[in-house]
Design goal:
The chain has about 400 residues and is of the alpha+beta class. The chain has twelve helices and 20 strands. The strands form four sheets. The protein has an eight-stranded mixed beta sheet with strand order 6-5-14-15-16-13-17-20. The mean pLDDT is about 95. It binds adenosine-5-diphosphoribose and P-hydroxybenzoic acid (PHB). The site of adenosine-5-diphosphoribose (APR) has 28 residues, from helix 1 and helix 8.
């Protein structure tokens, strides 16, 4: 088999890349370790930045998003039993966020790619990379019990944090930056109408809580827990009770309902530099992870492949590798800005184990500032809705 761009991973990064390349007239083949059902059902985050929505719209992927996505013009930050609205749209000259589950984005992308005749292979086993430091890289894998080989011009590593592509870069090339937060999130999906119109980020002495949603009938909520938390110790009643305590505000009630999904996810910051080696380009979670507090993971993945698709288009069209050579540094500027924002949000809202009160007081001082000074609220809002892309700034 032969293609121009071999893409490993059918998450948001790999699928958006494949779509953008198609629009540029560039062929790709996507290899995915899981089944189609699995990637379409996997519950992940659900906040799309303005720039992500614009890209999906501009490239013809937003039909269902326009119908079913919910636009939000603000978020609430709650602490000391009081709620404070951050008016995202007013503070950012008209930018917003959309609530639309990541797996819905993935479904729309797979439908669009397959309708355009794309090759996406699911349930692929044992993907290996060869020749990434040559001009003839290839992907080797097992499909339906048969050994296969895919020759490519370029390979895109879009296979997430636990994928294989990053590990195929020789030792000593990459520098890895890693920080593990001393807490995790227990997330639930519940069939109950959300008790709020806008997302609520709550700081409480017992730990952080977040009220999000997926639809008028479906709520998504999170609780800060220990990194090694045992889900068995969290029967539904206990989850609702703890959410009620941490989100409490006079005159406000949290409605509960059947929990249909429950999971614990760790919180880490991770970056590799550079995001390229030879003919292998890493994108999305394969190259970086952000703590979920800023809701940036998917958006950052889309930002990477936006840069990569343009660079590849220029390379194929003109033969110039300048943009491809600049891929890593262009992406990393945004990656570190988003890392900083996500870590800043995280440290403002979570309880730090062993805190003797100092951290808590600093958090409250920061929260008072962010919610009372317009300049501070504006900074949060600008980062939250997503900073403009380099090329929009004319850089
Ligand atoms: N071979 C083929 N596919 C693989 C392999 C492998 N060895 N390892 C992992 N994959 C697949 C995974 O099954 C997954 O479908 O790669 C895909 C990676 O997708 P994501 O993890 O969704 O990563 P990405 O596309 O970068 O999107 C980032 O996803 O992790 C969330 O919240 C995060 O929103 C962020 C977004
Ligand atoms: C979600 O809805 O899943 C969500 C929302 C906001 C976050 C993280 C996750 O910061």
């Amino acid at each position: 088999m032969r293609t121009q761009v071999g893409i490993v991973g059918a998450g948001p990064a790999g699928l958006v890349l494949s779509h953008l390349l198609h629009l540029e007239g560039i062929e790709s083949v996507v290899l995915e370790a899981r089944s189609r059902e699995y990637v379409e059902q996997r519950v992940r985050a659900g906040v799309l930045e303005q720039g992500t929505v614009d890209l999906l719209r501009d490239t013809g992927l937003a039909d269902r998003l326009e119908r079913e996505g919910i636009v939000h013009h603000g978020i609430e930050i709650r602490f000391d039993g009081r709620g404070h609205r951050i008016a995202l749209t007013d503070l950012t000259g008209g930018r917003s966020i959309w609530i639309y589950g990541q797996q819905e984005v993935v479904k729309d992308l797979i439908d669009a790619r397959l309708a355009a005749g794309a090759e996406i292979h699911f349930d692929v086993e044992d993907v290996r990379l060869e020749g990434i430091d040559s001009e003839t890289p290839s992907l080797h894998f097992i499909l339906g019990g048969t050994d296969r080989r895919l020759d490519c011009d370029v390979i895109a590593g879009c296979d997430g944090f636990h994928g294989v592509t990053r590990g195929s870069i020789p030792n000593g090339v990459l520098r890895e930056y890693h920080y593990e937060f001393p807490f995790a999130w227990l997330g639930i999906l519940a069939t109950v109408p959300p008790s709020t119109e806008e997302l609520i980020y709550a700081r409480h002495d017992r730990g952080f809580a977040l009220h999000s949603l997926r639809s008028p009938q479906l709520s998504r909520l999170y609780l800060q827990v220990a990194p090694n938390e045992n889900l068995n110790e969290w029967p539904d009643d206990r989850i609702w009770e703890e959410l009620r305590i941490r989100l409490a505000m006079e005159g406000w009630n949290l409605a509960d309902g059947p929990i249909i999904e429950k999971g614990v996810a760790g919180m880490r910051s991770f970056v590799v530099e550079p995001m390229q080696y030879g003919r292998l380009f890493l994108a999305g979670d394969a190259a970086h992870i952000v703590p979920a507090t800023g809701a940036k993971g998917l958006n950052l993945a889309v930002a990477d492949v936006r840069v990569l698709a343009r660079a590849l288009a220029t390379w194929y069209r003109t033969g110039s590798a300048d943009l491809l050579d600049a891929y890593s540094s262009r992406c990393l500027g945004r990656v570190w800005r988003v890392q900083d924002f996500s870590a800043w949000m995280s440290s403002m809202l979570h309880r730090y184990p062993g805190d003797d009160g100092m951290q808590g007081k600093l958090q409250l001082a920061r929260l008072e500032w962010v919610t009372s000074m317009e300049s501070a609220a504006r900074s949060l809002a600008e980062n939250y809705v997503g900073l403009p892309f380099d090329d929009e700034l004319g850089v």
